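I hope you will forgive my troubling you with a question about protein structure. You will find the record immediately after this paragraph.
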Amino acid sequence: MGDLLTIENLSLLHAGRSLVSGVSLSVSAGERVGLIGESGSGKSLTALAAIGLLPEGMTATGSVLLADRQVIGAADRDVVNLRGTAVATIFQEPLTALDPLMRIGDQIAEVVRRRARRDGHSLSRADLIAEVIGLMARVALPNPARLARAYPHEMSGGQRQRAAIAMALACRPSLLIADEPTTALDVTTQAEVLKLLEALVREDNMGLLFISHDLPVVGTAVDRVLVLRAGELVEEGPVAEVFCRPRHPYTVGLVEAAR
């Protein structure tokens, strides 16, 4: 089986301005890959290109193979079925990613229902509730039956992020993209979410593309790291090697700043 995600020579242009230039990376099953760089370096745009959700007016060239399907140049109707099957995404701020008018249990249940329809299965109400509670318990949400009835604003930031992870897991994806998933969390909750992601990737043999500007966070979350600067890939390798013996001056500066 090939890589879950293969990006080759990806370039992104908007209004004649180059935002990403010649980026290549791959993620295979069970692999944890980090994409780091300062704000505006092109990390999130690279992730959006991977799932075919680039902003309107942006031009992409190169190749993005997601589950062996070409994303660049494909019609949205040909890519939409890959979202939630081949890949699921966790965004930076779950308070804006979640529907504020729906209870958390209902939001997770909607994903479970869609996956069941996709797989040609039908779920009874009892089975649906049991799976929702099971997913919430798996991401270590306390008292899942109570929190399932809560609205997003009634939960802490860490609880909302765990709920977002539960929704991603409900899709049963092969690849998980986590775009700055711990930025809005305190240090203790960050560590808990990182430990949770590591365990889930290991248990389900998922691939993980972890995007962040925070080197200490990335250092605990991934095995291999790629460094972006102004849309260009300047360094890559095993995380211990890149962080302990950085070669590019930009990476050296990031490491020194983190220290």
Observations:
- Residues 187-204 form the longest helix (18 residues).
- The chain has a mean pLDDT of 91.
- The longest strand covers residues 17-27.
